[in-house]
Amino acid sequence: MRVSRRVGAAVPGALSLLLTASIAGSAHATSPTGTAHIAAQASRAAESWPVEDCSDESYILRTDSITAEPKPLEPGKPLTITVHGHLTEEIREGAAVQVTVKLGLVTLQHQTLDLAKELKARDAPVQVPVKPGNISLPIYYGDLFANKEIPRGDFRISVAAYNNDDADLACARAHMNLRRG
Description:
Structural class: alpha+beta
Strand content: 35-45%
Order of helices and strands: HHHEEEEEHEEE
Number of strands: 8
Radius of gyration: 17 Å
Distance between the termini: 50 Å
């Protein structure tokens, strides 16, 4: 018997609220020059922020590479993490993506999303069901900086995707250190 890993619930607006609170707490980030400085800093950091594959040979999407866009990170634009590789089984309705976003030690977002709904809502080039074969699968669309402000901090994003039967589909981690000036 397999225990489902699909836990957590969407918390609308919680991420924006926490990011806004974080920005409001920093006088440097709210001044016009501070905002420009942080945006420039984010662009420099995002050019080299790593995205790593955390899957293994048991995953049904055998990863060749993972991309995160835009690079450099642009305030007000969604972050998209796409896994490129070979799919060994069909992705079916009911597939899910579990997302955790942390700023330092604080969890800003932990939710489970319906993969088919997310792909459809974003008008992705691939839609569920997805047949086996070579694929570029967007597993995460994040509006981390939708409020057009990027706070200083050490961001870590973990994304794990599962098929409808909870079989491991894909796994990625991203790290953006926006603390340095």
